[in-house]
Amino acid sequence: MMSASEAAKRAAEHVTAMTGRSAECVVGLERAGDDGWRVQVEVVETRRIPDSADILAIYETEIDADGELVGYRRARRYPRGRVERN
């Protein structure tokens, strides 16, 4: 079974390969069934000047027990620094 940290690393690598954009960080991680992981990766979609005007996105991925990408989708986009209220 793949560790959580390895799944996070592989998810970031897969998102970078699929989108052509660098992953900023992993913002969510959870087990998906008995042998996989769901990982949320934050990406800078559009760089702007100043940096505070960047557009970020969260990609939700599913990684199997071998570290392979099973699925991914862009869940949302938002400007950097935007705070969500619950």
TrEMBL record:
UniProt-listed InterPro entries: Gas-vesicle_GvpO
One BP term from GO: gas vesicle organization
A Pfam entry, by short name: GvpO
This protein's name: Gas vesicle protein GvpO
Lineage: Bacteria, Bacillati, Actinomycetota, Actinomycetes, Streptosporangiales
